Structures are given as structure tokens and as C-alpha cells.
Amino acid sequence: MIKKVSVNTIKKKKINNEKITALTAYDYSTGMCLDEAGIDIILVGDSLAMVALGYPTTHAVGVDEMYIFTKAVAKGVNRAMVITDMPFMSYGVSVENAMENFAKMIKVGANAVKLEGCNDYILQIIERCNNTGIPVLGHLGFTPQFLNTIGGYNIQGKTLETTELILKRAKQLQDAGVFAIVLEMVPEESAKYITENLEVPTIGIGAGKYCSGQILVSDDLFGKYSDFTPKFARKYADIRSVMKDAVTNYINDVKNSAFPAENEVFKLSEEELNKLMGEINC
Ligand code: KIV
Questions:
Q1: How many Cα atoms occupy the beta-carbon half-sphere of 196 within 13 Å?
Q2: 58, 72, 191, 272: which has the fewest C-beta neighbours closer than 10 Å?
Q3: Is the distance from the beta carbon of residue 214 to the nearest atom of ligand 1 less than 6 Å?
Q4: What are phi and psi of 220, to 5 degrees?
């Protein structure tokens, strides 16, 4: 029987000095592929706003869309922990409304939710999640939902003062009960300091090698999304070229009548053919 990755598996990995592996997925077959490859965490990231839906930022995506993508991914996953990245304003209106939105995701197969930032209100939500059995993954450093208040895609924690502030918030999240924290776009030295001073694991994206684990947007790793590639995103394949070549070959084959071939069509038996011809001639 497959042993599902749980919050305990993730926490233990930091204790045992084992790296946590995480990637995003937005559909059933990609979720299945990442799971079969042995990934620990699959995040249904709100990055799907750009990568899957073509919006300029994550702000445009809503609960209804995240619900559909979460449902699709969760159906394809057996072992990995599936986490829904709660979208902009899906937890900003009220604690009650936030809890209703989280419940929707858990009911269709998410094992946890991810929330950006840390303030008294977020800490209150995390407490409610603890009381209702919803694990929370925190997210600090650069938090895309705060793009307009941060003022750009800026690296966070470049000074001792700002690094201490991220650590302070991380400790508050930890005390409130998150099982891990994503650190995005933080200098490697700062992320190391933060990771070493926390009990819960950190999962870095553009935060260097000392984090307890790493996460990337899978379309960046596959080389499928080409609008923008961040410095920290390593391209492990060139799926876009593979797809384009396949489509070009298909177009040529159709134009030259090389597709479909004999073994790709349905044929009538001789008896069926004779019957048909007889009916046509009547
Ligand atoms: O939405 C996203 O993809 C994220 C990253 C941490 C991968 O939040």
C-alpha cells in the first residue's frame, strides 16, 4: 500500500536532514506524472493564473477556478501531499469566509492549504485551521499577492533588519501551527539564517540551497511556459520544442495524407461492406 506524504513526513525530513521536493501542477495527468516520479508535495499554485490561464499576475484567479484545478490534480495523485494555494482575497474578507473556501478545497482532495504573509488576522485563520483539521503551509519573502504593495518583483530580506523581520514572522507562523514555510526570492545567506532558526522546514523558491526543500513551477522546469523565466527556475526539459515539433509533423502529415494510416482507421468487414453496397444500390 502507498504511504501518503503527511505533515509528519514533511516535518521529519528537516529533522533527518533530508531535502523536501515540491512542484506545482494544474491538471490530472501532470499531477499523476509528478506523483509517479516520487515528488513529496504538489502545489496547485495560483501561478496557474499566468501559466495555465494567461493572466498577467496571480490576482485574477478565484476560488471557483482553484477548485476545478485542485479537483483535477487530486484525482491523479496517490502519494504526494496536494496543497491548494488559496488565491487573492479568498481569505481576506473574513475568517468565516476563508474557512468556507478552504473546506471546498479539502473536500475535493487537497491535503492542506497555502496562505501568503503573516499578520494578526492570518494567525487567527491558522488557529481556526488547527481547530478544524486543515494543515497550513505558510509563504514569506516575496509574496505575489502583495505585488502592488511590495511595488515590484523585489528580492526580500537583503538586510539584517528585513531578514530579522522575516524570521520574526516565520516564528509567529510556526507558533500558530504551520507545518512548513515557503520562502520566495530571499538571498541564500538570509534564507540559511531563517531556516537554521526555525523548527519547521522551509521550502525555497529563489532562496538558495540551504532551505529544507525546493519548489518550482513545473511549467518552468518542463520548459513549457516562455512568457517569463525567473533567474532561479532551472529548465530540465524543452517540452515546448517537443510539442511544436509534434504539431508541425502532424500538420505536414495531414496535408500530405500521411495521417491517418491504415492501422489508424476503422474498416468494415467484407460482409458489412457487401451489405452496405447492396443497400446503396437499392
Ligand atoms: O503559485 C505558485 O506557483 C507558488 C510558488 C511557491 C511555486 O506559490
A1: 10
A2: 272
A3: no
A4: -70, -45
89 and 117 assigned to the same domain: yes
Domain that holds residue 252: 243-281
Q: What does pTM read for this prediction? A: 0.96
> Would the CB of 45 count as within 6 Å of ligand 1?
yes
Q: How far is CA 41 from CA 18, 77, 86, 111, 206, in A?
A: 14, 10, 16, 10, 17
Say if residue 231 is in the same domain as residue 254.
no
> Which residue among 184, 196, 272, 279 is the active-site one?
184
Q: Are residues 192 and 264 in the same domain?
A: no
For residue 271, indicate whether it is catalytic: no
Q: Is residue 176 domain-shared with residue 268, that is, in the same domain?
A: no
Instruction: Decide if 212 contacts 194 (C-beta within 8 A).
Output: no
Answer yes or no: do 252 and 116 share one domain. no
Identify whether 1 is part of a domain.
no
> Of the candidates 215, 205, 212, which has an alpha carbon nearest to the alpha carbon of residue 15?
212
Please count the structural domains in the chain: 2
Per-residue pLDDT of the chain (282 residues; tens, 9 = 90+): 889 999 999 999 999 999 999 999 999 999 999 999 999 999 999 999 999 999 999 999 999 999 999 999 999 999 999 999 999 999 999 999 999 999 999 999 999 999 999 999 999 999 999 999 999 999 999 999 999 999 999 999 999 999 999 999 999 999 999 999 999 999 999 999 999 999 999 999 999 999 999 999 999 999 999 888 899 999 999 999 999 999 999 999 999 999 999 999 999 999 999 999 999 887
Ligand 1 pocket member 145 (CB < 6 A): no
* Ligand 1 centroid distance, CA of 195 (Å): 19
